[in-house]
């Protein structure tokens, strides 16, 4: 968390960190000095220790506007499963892909790679006589926010 806050704070991003109240207790996992340093770089909201913090994350992201992004390793599958119909689940996945920043561990010690949220939708797209079709070379399991990185471009002649 410390490395992520430091990395994002360098980009002058406005940060809200959602955590649980146990993080305020000085312990081997949550040093008071480290927490104070992070609180100088970001706003914090501490939920009850037994709370479901995903609801706070989703609310804060939605309430902060359409350009707000969020970082979590959670795939939010439980929340998608609660949605009543396939169209709503599809819209949630589309929203998630456009707002969730992925985290990838770096080979370097104490460094984090952030995978940006997608600026485009992963569906067949067309402009005039040209189609762009996302595809994968091999079948592999993927999470709902991951999309193929290859696109086939077909142009009618």
From TrEMBL:
UniProt keyword Methyltransferase, yes or no: no
Gene Ontology, cellular component aspect: mitochondrial ribonuclease P complex
Keywords in alphabetical order: Hydrolase, Metal-binding, Mitochondrion, Transit peptide, Zinc
Domain of life per record: Eukaryota
Pfam families reported for this sequence: PRORP
UniProt cross-references to InterPro entries, sorted A to Z: MRPP3_PIN_dom, PRORP_C
Sequence ranges assigned to domain PRORP in this UniProt record: 3-153
Protein's name in the database: MRPP3 ribonuclease
Species this protein is from: Nicator chloris
Gene: Mrpp3_1
């Amino acid at each position: 968390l410390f490395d992520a806050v430091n990395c994002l704070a360098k980009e002058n991003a406005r940060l809200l960190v959602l955590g649980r109240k146990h993080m305020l207790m000085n312990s081997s996992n949550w040093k008071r000095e480290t927490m104070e340093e992070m609180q100088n770089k970001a706003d914090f909201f501490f939920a009850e220790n037994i709370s479901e913090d995903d609801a706070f994350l989703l609310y804060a992201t939605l309430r902060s506007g359409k350009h707000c992004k969020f970082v979590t390793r959670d795939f939010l599958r439980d929340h998608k499963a609660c949605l009543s119909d396939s169209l709503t689940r599809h819209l949630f996945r589309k929203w998630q892909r456009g707002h969730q920043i992925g985290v990838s561990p770096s080979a370097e010690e104490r460094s984090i790679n952030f995978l940006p949220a997608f600026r485009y939708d992963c569906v067949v797209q067309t402009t005039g006589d040209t189609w762009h079709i996302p595809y994968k070379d091999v079948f592999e399991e993927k999470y709902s926010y991951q999309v193929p990185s290859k696109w086939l471009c077909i142009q009618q002649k």
